[in-house]
């Protein structure tokens, strides 16, 4: 049952992050790597880092909100990078993240804002608007 829940959650994440900044579909979600993050920052791109865990109920609530927002034309310039809370501890340390369901937005090389445990459509939308 736990594997089914994880597969279901990953399917949602694939849907959420299938839109790149150019509007083209990705074959799979973009996993956070330091190289990818550095390249996006160097290019001055807007980045949304999503720290998720498959077992996290808050993350499950955030998923459809992010899916809807990132599908909007207004936010298609934002690249989403997924950080798995359970397996990417080194990244959590670098980003100073201690909890799953953390959302961090960057513009270019600078962190603009972050939220933890936010499930409000309007406040997540405002968070994303800070980097467009």
CATH architecture, by name, is: 3-Layer(aba) Sandwich
Q: Compute the number of strand runs.
A: 4
| Low-pLDDT ranges | 13-29
Q: Which outline best applies?
A: globular
Please list the strands of the largest sheet in the order they lie side by side. Answer: 2-1-3-4
Question: What do these coordinates show?
Answer:
It is a single chain. The chain has a 4-stranded mixed sheet, with helices on both faces. Strand 1, helix 3 and strand 2 (78-84) form a beta-alpha-beta unit. It has helices at residues 2-16, 34-42, 57-71, 89-95, 121-129; strands spanning 46-52, 78-84, 102-107, 110-116. It has one domain (2-129): Glutaredoxin. The protein has 132 residues and is of the alpha+beta class. The radius of gyration is 13 Å and the shape is globular. It contains 5 helices and 4 strands; from the N terminus they run ααβαβαββα. Mean pLDDT is 84; it is low at 13-29.
In terms of topology, how is this protein built?
Elements: H1 2-16, H2 34-42, E1 46-52, H3 57-71, E2 78-84, H4 89-95, E3 102-107, E4 110-116, H5 121-129
Parallel strand pairs: 1-2
Antiparallel strand pairs: 1-3, 3-4
Features:
132 residues; alpha+beta; Glutaredoxin; 4-stranded mixed sheet
Brief rundown of the structure:
By secondary structure, the protein is α+β, with helices and mostly antiparallel strands. Helices cover 42% and strands 20% of the residues. The chain has one domain: 3-Layer(aba) Sandwich (Glutaredoxin).
């Amino acid at each position: 049952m736990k594997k089914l829940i994880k597969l279901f959650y990953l399917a949602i994440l694939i849907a959420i992050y299938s839109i790149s900044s150019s509007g083209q579909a990705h074959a799979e979600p973009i996993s956070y790597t330091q190289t990818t993050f550095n390249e996006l920052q160097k290019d001055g791109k807007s980045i949304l880092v999503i720290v998720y865990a498959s077992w996290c109920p808050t993350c499950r609530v955030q998923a459809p909100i992010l899916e809807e927002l990132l599908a909007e034309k207004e936010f298609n310039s934002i690249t989403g990078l997924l950080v798995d809370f359970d397996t990417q501890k080194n990244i959590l340390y670098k980003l100073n993240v201690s909890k799953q369901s953390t959302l961090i937005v960057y513009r270019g090389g600078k962190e603009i804002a972050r939220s933890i445990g936010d499930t409000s459509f309007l406040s997540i939308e405002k968070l994303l608007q800070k980097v467009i």
